[in-house]
Amino acid sequence: MIRTPYVLFLGDAPDPLAAKLAQGIKDWRPESSIGQIRLPGCRADMGLPDMTPRSAADSGAKTLVIGVANRGGVISKSWLDTLEEALEAGLDIASGLHNLLRNEKRLVAAAQVKKRKLHDVRLPTLSYPVADGKPRSGLRCLAVGSDCSVGKMYTMLAVEKEMHKRGLRASFRATGQTGILITGKGVPLDAVVADFMAGAIEQLTPNNDPDHWDLIEGQG
Questions:
Q1: Domain limits, CATH 3.40.50.300, in the chain
Q2: For 6-120, which CATH class?
Q3: Which pLDDT score, from 0 to 100, does residue 101 have?
Q4: Cβ partners under 8 Å of residue 136, min gap 6
Q5: What is the dihedral of CA 169, 220, 47, 14, to 10 degrees?
Q6: Please, what sign has the CA dihedral across residues 76, 78, 80, 86?
Q7: How confident is the model at residue 70 (pLDDT cuts 50, 70, 90)?
Q8: How far is CA 110 from the centre of its chain?
């Protein structure tokens, strides 16, 4: 389980779009976002208090979330000093990048010394079955779009919020790293072997009450 509250690491994001993961958490889980950490040259700003790893820990943060995605989804070498400082300050680290925290020797060593956790959100934690295509009870709605970053997740979260206001039963089902960090669970679909993608979504949206809606975040 990823501990909250978060401090959002924006690194050296060249523009706000590069920090869309942090923006999503700030917009949809504001109670869990107490501050931001920015490096020199960062052009993204969540409007949260600027902090250091130590001041974030002193303010009650439990996990530093890497909220920026660069080209290729790698952990930049220029981030490592700050990430190591976070572990030394007592923070866990969570990342949705393709480049895994567990492959960064400096971070693994620091986490072991300080008994902190490294969460690679993009790494599936379950074994998924092949889909069987059998009908399941309950209702489902899938958001699709023509490209990445067009608002599929935001749409489903907004629909869920409005449905709850109207007394309807609905659950947002995350399929990407930002949604998983917002809700605390889901399937990192782009890291699932293609043969098992449909089965993963069947597992994510099991049998439910006839009036319950699963609101599924589309990918692609």
A1: 139-216
A2: alpha beta
A3: 96
A4: 202, 205, 206, 207, 208
A5: 170
A6: negative
A7: confident
A8: 23
Tell which CATH architecture fits domain 139-216. 3-Layer(aba) Sandwich (3.40)
SS (H, E, C) the chain: CCCCCEEEEEECCCCHHHHHHHHHHHHHCHHHEEEEEECCCCCCCCCCCECCHHHHHHCCCCEEEECCCCCCCCCCHHHHHHHHHHHHCCCEEEECCCCCHHHCHHHHHHHHHHCCCEEECCCCCCCCCCCCCCCCCCEEEECCCCCCCCCHHHHHHHHHHHHHHCCCEEEEECCCHHHHHHHCCCCCHHHCCHHHHHHHHHHHCCCCCCCEEEEECCCC
Count of beta carbons in the 10 Å neighbourhood of residue 83: 27
Write out the residue limits of the CATH 3.40.50.720 domain(s) in the chain. 6-120
Kindly report, residue by residue over 15-65, the tens digit of the pLDDT. 999 999 999 999 999 999 999 999 999 999 999 999 999 999 999 999 999
The chain-wide mean pLDDT, for the chain, equals 95
